[in-house]
Amino acid sequence: MTNEPISAPPATTHVDVVADEVTRVFTWQDDARIEVRNLGSEIVIEANAAGLRTLAGHLLTLAKDGTPDGAHLHLEGNNGLEEGSASLVLERCGEE
User: Fold this and answer.
1) Pairwise CA distance, residues 46 & 67, whole Å
2) What residues are paired with 82 via a beta bridge?
3) Running DSSP on this structure, what letter comes out for residue 29?
4) Backbone angles phi, psi at 14, to 5 degrees
5) pLDDT tens, 54-90?
6) Tally of helices (H runs) and strands (E runs) in the chain
């Protein structure tokens, strides 16, 4: 994270997503801070401990049995990520 002022955590601490009539809940831990930077040849995801647990929870939610391929979550500055972050999409894809 940078030394810039930290934006407030998301106003919503959970999001319910319905895909193929299956509800998935994405939850943010209190004080989660997540920043995504695009450095050209690499992407940096920087987060405090609560932010890392939040991302891990999002990934586990997408990995649950019955979650359809293509289910995804968009994260952006002031929508789950720190202001000024590059957008991030977490998406489940088919088995290979």
Assistant:
1) 27
2) none
3) P
4) -150, 155
5) 999 999 999 998 888 888 899 999 888 999 999 999 9
6) 1, 7
For the beta carbon of residue 28, count every other beta carbon within 10 angstroms.
22
**Tokens 């590059």 belong to which residue?**
86
Ramachandran angles phi, psi of 22, nearest 5° = -110, 125
Tell me the C-alpha distance between 51 and 21, whole Å. Answer: 28
Question: Please, which residues have CB within 8 angstroms of residue 8's CB and are 6 or more apart in sequence?
Answer: none
CA-to-CA dists, residue 93 to 3, 12, 46, 69, 80, angstroms:
36, 26, 24, 5, 22
Provide the token pair at 79: 């929508």
Report angle CA 88, 86, 27 to the nearest 5 degrees. 45
Q: What is the pLDDT of residues 5-63, one digit of tens each?
A: 444 444 446 566 666 677 788 889 989 999 999 999 999 999 999 999 999 999 999 99
Structure tokens at 89: 């999409």
